[in-house]
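User: Before I run my own analysis I want an independent prediction to cross-check against. Here's the chain; please return only the structure tokens and, at the end, one sentence I can use as a sanity check.
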Amino acid sequence: QRRRPSPRAWAATGIAAALALDPFLALEEEEDAAAARRGVRRVASALPLWHRMEEGRATPQLVVQAVRAGFRGIDTACQPKHYREDLVGAALEQLAREGVPREQLWLQTKFTPLTGQDPNNVPYDPNAPLKLQVEQSIAKSLSNLGTKHLDSLVLHSPLPTLEETLEAWSVFEQAVGEGTVGQLGISNCYDAEFFKGLYNAARVKPKVLQNRFYKDAGYDQELRAFCLENGVTYQSFWTLTANPHILRSAPVAGAAERLNATPQQVLFCWLIQSGHQPLTGTKSAEHMRQDLQAPSLRLTDDEMATVGALFCAGDSSSPGGCS
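Assistant: Structure tokens:
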């Protein structure tokens, strides 16, 4: 159960939360002009990204609810096994009728390799060569979402080898060159050397790494440090579900008490202040509001250090430190 902040806390964060509704306010200054020239729009990493799986017919209602609450970034995938891109598209149509045009939203979707698809419902020709599968998946995503442009395209997981991954990536790069896609990323990549190999070999560098944020992966300390050093947005998912022990910890509880916030907000705030972007898929209107308030909270340096220490695998001197 999340504890609701007091009316005073809500009032104190209202202005900052409202400003955070524009996902393009947080373009890094050094990239702003270059990104604009390329027509690239980057969602503010200071704002949680809305993400939901396996909701079937409820998907349009939830997407509309999230956008009405203030989310402007939506994460989905061309993977009918778990996602309904077409129903996200239906929600986008409804939002446009309500006065929220596509141009005010930031869309991120994924190409899911064959091993991640339901063999009875693959959104591309499973017998086609890999490059053609990627091309067909991108076309399907554009059709499902009713758009001519994807702000971000993510490889849902690495292929078995770096060579195969780069083969798929080359189609991603072509889509960027054609103006169909704004930026690229990869998900479920926990091998730091693999990610660095992709980054170094790619002509169009990944701008997103979306991973499960959990203890078994060492909280991606090395990967997160590399992302911060190279302008890659680290997007965390399973952030709350995988970390009940973190939410119950004394450092998080202490910060929540001081801020009159929830432990969930504190964890999201820590990630955002660390330069990362949490994904959230709550169905609760109250939790949506709380998640959108997280960027307006501010942890002290001591709180950042003590909460960060919870994610250190006994090595606070690593490049990622406790961040």
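Sanity check: The chain has a mean pLDDT of 85.
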